[in-house]
Structures are given as structure tokens and as C-alpha cells.
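Re: BIS(adenosine)-5'-pentaphosphate structure - here you go.
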Amino acid sequence: MRVVLLGPPGAGKGTQAARLAATWGVPHVSTGDAFRQAVAEGTPLGKLAQEYMQRGELVPDQVVNGVVAARLARDDCAPGFVLDGYPRTLPQAEALEGMLEERGLRLDAVVDLTVSEEELVRRAAGRRVCSRCGANYHLEFRPPRHAGRCDLCGGELVQREDDRAETVSRRLAVYRRQTAPLVEFYRERGLLVEVDGGGTVEEVTLAILEAVDGRLGRKGGS
Ligand code: AP5
């Protein structure tokens, strides 16, 4: 199963990618998580990525393509992957096509999660992440059992630096300009499935599984 999740910041890509990856038994590959980990470790990649992420801008294509090519070449991606946050520009989409073609592979589906802008802003404003293990919460929709603490590891929950209101609106503008054109790119290739991302987490997962099964001509979940 080789699937890409498209959608604006806060659409639920990370939340859904983790659930889908567990259902299909393939890795969840998130460029945003990879960069945040590199930032936390203070690596040269992290220092470079941080400059762009803080401003709500995209990390240069060449850098991101290198990170993804190395990740997809690892053995655990042989049965497939769920890509979250990549590709985000036309050159990245073309690079991904090239990486897969080299191995005689292609994508199975590209899921476009659509969510109203009002809801996106609400989701970003309430998001909290564990500073230790990266688990994702929402103050209103997915609160932790103990305020400010991760249910999984007890780590402190913090707001992502790029979730401040001003940076969120810049990220939305960058999405509209640079990532939204990918919807047509994948529609033309017959890979696009559009899913309403505005329901509950469970409803959206079911809708994605159904839409992907429909695209692959199968019935029932898998
Ligand atoms: P990245 O981490 O990919 O951020 P993003 O695409 O902006 O997406 P988000 O993580 O904000 O949201 P999401 O759609 O994953 O939603 P989530 O599931 O968390 O990228 C960060 C930065 O890294 C970029 O700005 C860029 O600088 C750089 N970068 C990354 N990839 C790059 C690339 N390919 N090229 C260049 N630069 C790149 O959900 C949001 C919140 O809502 C959570 O709190 C969640 O609990 C809640 N929620 C989720 N679903 C629901 C639901 N159904 N109902 C209620 N609440 C929900």
C-alpha cells in the first residue's frame, strides 16, 4: 500500500496517517516529524529546516527530496508507506514519481483531506504535542487524561512553534500557493480520492479506508 495524504495544515494528515499505517502495517513517513526530530537533535539538517519552519515556509525541495529518498529506500518501506506532508510542491511530486519509477513502483492512491478554514485554525490553535515522544493532542477534541502531560510517556505537552496564529495563516497561504496545485496533478493521473476531513477522527479514518478501497476496486476495509 503506497498512499500519500494531501491537505492543508491542521487537516488531520498526521492523525490519520498514524492510524492508516497501523491498519495497513506499513510505516508512517512524515517529513514534518523528520524535521522536528532533526531540530530537537540540533543536527545540521535541523538547523537548516528550523529557519524555514519558524517562518511557516517550505524547506527547499532538494533537501526534502533527499530526506524522503533515503527514508523510502529503507527495507521497512518495501511493503509500502503512508506519506504525510510530502510531496508539497510540483517538483517534489515529480521527484517522488522518479523515486518510485526507478523501482518499477507507483502510488496506489493520493487522499486529499478537505476541511474548512475556520476548523483548520481551531485545530492548530488547540493542538499540543508531547515534547518527549511527539504524541499529538487537542485541548478540546483529544485532551490528555492529565492536563499538560502525555498519556503515553508522561512528557510535557507544548504548543508547536509554528502553531502561533500568525504563522498558521502564513502556512495556509503557502499551502494554497504551492501545494494545492498537486490536487490537479494527481487528479490527472487518476490517483486522487477526495475525503471530507471535517468529521470525527474515527469517521475520517473510515471514509479514507472506504475511498481507498473504492479506488483499488475492493470492497470492505483491509
Ligand atoms: P508538517 O508537520 O507536515 O505540518 P502541516 O502539513 O502544516 O500539517 P500539520 O502537522 O499542521 O497538520 P496535520 O494535517 O498533520 O494535522 P494533525 O493530524 O496534526 O510540516 C511542518 C513544517 O515542516 C512545514 O511548514 C515546512 O516548513 C516543513 N515541511 C514539512 N514537509 C515539507 C515538505 N514536503 N516540503 C517542504 N517543507 C516541509 O491535526 C491537527 C490537530 O487537530 C491535532 O491537535 C489533532 O489532534 C486535531 N485533529 C485531527 N483530526 C481531527 C478531527 N477529525 N477532529 C478533531 N480534531 C482533529
